[in-house]
Amino acid sequence: MLGGYLRGTAIVATVDAVAIGIGLLVVGVPLALPLAVVVFLGAFVPLVGAVVAGALVALVALVTNGPVAALVVVAIVVAVNQLEGDLLAPLVMGKVLSLHPLAVLSALTAGTILAGIVGTLLAVPIAAVAWAAVKEWNATAPPGDELVPSSPPGRRLRPCG
Q1: I need a surface site. Which of 7, 56, 63, 103 has the fewest CB within 10 A?
Q2: To 10 degrees, the CA torsion angle through 70, 52, 10, 80?
Q3: How far is CA 152 from CA 63, 95, 111, 158, 159, in A?
Q4: According to DSSP H, which parts of the chain are helical?
Q5: 132: buried, middle or exposed (CB in 10 Å: 19+, 13-18, 0-12)?
Q6: By residue range, what is the domain housing residue 12?
Q7: Using one digit for the tens of pLDDT, what is the confidence trace for 61-77?
Q8: Is the confidence at residue 134, as pLDDT, over 70?
Q9: Cβ of 41: how many Cβ atoms within 10 Å?
Q10: Is 159 part of a structural domain of the chain?
Q11: Looking at residue 70, what is its pLDDT?
Q12: Structural domain tally of the chain?
């Protein structure tokens, strides 16, 4: 479960870093590759990681290229973070953890409301473990309690084979 969560987070972080890195190259911000690495690492920290990395990227753009370039970089960072948070992360996490994307968003929302940043960090793995436990609970039946298909009264099932 935890491995899937980390793989999903790495996929999302890579997409963020590549998209923002390309945006930085287009705008002409120096140190685009190291800044993309900072974005990649920041994506592993929910909520504040993307904000801090985006602020750093915008600050570098402001100092090196001026206010117009900084505003363009802020727009790129906000757009990428919105797409990542609302579309990409739920889809990727849902796929790697076998959860519905709505369940991922609901778990993130509940975790954030109940426990803040720590809740955000732990919400999706806890939801994935809980779902795996529910699936396992329903999949295992006590010996002799195997489910058999029902047949209409007066009609017998023929054995297969």
Answers
A1: 63
A2: -40
A3: 78, 39, 48, 13, 16
A4: 2-27, 32-42, 48-65, 67-83, 89-97, 101-139
A5: middle
A6: 2-98
A7: 999 999 999 999 999 99
A8: yes
A9: 13
A10: no
A11: 97
A12: 1
Residue with tokens 């690495």: 37
Residues 70-109 as b/e (b if ≥16 CB within 10 A, e otherwise) read bebbbebbeebbeebbeebbbebbbebbebebebbbebbe
User: Who contacts 79 (Cβ-Cβ below 8 Å, separation ≥6)?
Assistant: none
Whole-Å CA distances, 153 to 146, 148, 150, 156, 157 = 20, 15, 9, 8, 11
State pLDDT tens for residues 33-55.
999 999 999 998 877 888 899 99
CB 4 within 8 A of CB 128: yes
Residue 140 lies inside a defined structural domain of this protein? no
Task: Locate 43 and state its tokens.
Answer: 């994506």
Measure the CA–CA gap between 129 and 17, rounded to whole angstroms: 28
Q: Band of the pLDDT at 150, cuts 50, 70, 90?
A: low
State pTM to two decimals. 0.72
**One-letter amino acid identity for 151?**
S
